[in-house]
Every structure is written in structure tokens, then in C-alpha cells.
Amino acid sequence: MQKIIICGNLTADPIINEREYVVKDTAEIKKTKVANFTVAVDSGYGERKTTQFFRVNAWRGLGETCAKYLEKGRQVMVEGVVSLNNYVDKNNNLRAVMEIRANEVQFLGSKGVETPEELPPEEEEMLY
Length: 128
Known about the structure:
Blueprint lengths: L3 E7 L4 E8 L6 E15 L6 E10 H10 L5 E14 L5 E15 L12 H6 L2
């Protein structure tokens, strides 16, 4: 089994879609929700700094939660399985893209979170 963990920032708000899948045992066709988003991951520093972009798919409840709470610029850590998917682009060229099927998404950093300087003195003591 393979596993990847990345930490970076969303390049855009997640897009949620409904997809059909076939239940193996019954051959029944069902629908489920999937959130798609891209995470930009920086590495290196200065002139050697590079950014890599990872496409992420979060399915079912995880996908709905991501679509509800994530937004462009939000920092996340994603753990999941990598897959290589081939497709034909609009110019009829064969392309490949690596995607992460998320097993876990941790929401890091957020806008509007109070910092210790903004808390009343009695609550500030509880943080340390």
C-alpha cells in the first residue's frame, strides 16, 4: 500500500460534484458527493523555492465537510493514496495526472482566529 502526506494551501475553493458508482455485490448504481481541490506545496527557499500542485479528491462525508469549510488560501494537511490517471485533452493528446484520494484532511490555520493578545486576561492564562 502507498500513502502520501502533503501540507500546503488551497489554490481555489473546493468544487463539489455528484458522481455515480456501482455497488459490487448488487450491481446497483448509487450517487455520492466528491469534493475536488488543488493544494500548492512549497519546498526549498530563496531562489531554490519550488511549488508543486496536487489534485485532491475527498469523497462522501469528508468531501462535503471540505466543501463546506475550506476556501482558497486555507492551509491543509492531506493524507491519502496516490493514483495516476490518464485522460485525453481537448487537443486529443494523452495526458496523465497524479491525484490524491484523501483519507484524512486536517484544516490548519484559519482566518479570524483569536490570538492570545486578543483574548481577555483570564482566558489568556489558560493557553499557556
